[in-house]
Amino acid sequence: MAAHREQFEVKVMAGVLGVSVSGFYRWRPRGESEREQANRELRATIRAIHADSRSTYGVRRVQAALKQRQVVCNRKRVARLMRLEGLQGRGRGRRRPRTTTSDPTLAVAPNLLARDFSATQPNEKWLADITYIDTLEGFAYLAAVLDPFSRRVVGWALADHLRTELVEDAGRMALTQRRPLHDLIHHSDQGSQYASADYRALLEKHSITVSMSRTGDCYDNAMMESFWGTLKAECATAPFASRAVAREAIFEYLEVWYNRQRLHSALNYTSPAQFERQHALTIP
Fold this sequence. Notes:
Blueprint: H1 10-17, H2 21-27, H3 34-52, H4 59-68, H5 75-85, E1 125-133, E2 140-147, E3 152-159, H6 164-178, E4 184-188, H7 192-195, H8 197-205, E5 208-212, H9 222-234, H10 243-258, H11 272-281
Parallel strand pairs: 1-4, 4-5
Antiparallel strand pairs: 1-2, 2-3
Helix pairs in contact: 3-5, 4-5, 6-8
């Protein structure tokens, strides 16, 4: 048992071998080795990081969080200690059906984005979409606007309907929070909400160029689809008790956790807010 303590918990080995944990420690009078002590302390740190991440972080993000705490540890060791603690990242569930329907009487815009989600500064491109949020009262509908430069959610709205006001509310939040001053491309699907005269007028008022995905092609807005997958896996994992509860949870997830704390692999394991702060420091 002593030789395999790094691979298996003492209580597990004791159960398999039919001996008591206390008996093992009485038999083994010497104290912990430096390696065992380091692993015990590291496991406690990993447990804290995983708990702080709302039990969502897998091995890579836990390792990145350790690095931010000046703890150097290779991925295999992190993976092994997480297995011993029974910790794992939260996977994504199945996708929901589409939430928007096109209206052939409304004009649509060309696909100017062309699946190029790169950006060199904030407010260069915005991605917009709608998804379902399941509650015991019935579906709620979440519209969001994402800035691909930092993966930050810059605007969002939740409602019990799919009317144009839903996307207008999300768009107005984005405009209020960001106040874009340079050329900006707004990309969405061809849903009737985004193609509506009211929403197009809102974008035109702020000199925003409209881009739309091709019909039925989710890859044309793949980054937004990826974000929905993350939200469903980390926040909306089961039906909420009510739409009000859903609103509180989504507010807390987006505004407190996702935008300001969650480590994003595409941002060199920084949060969207931190990534934007770092970028601002490079501007002369």
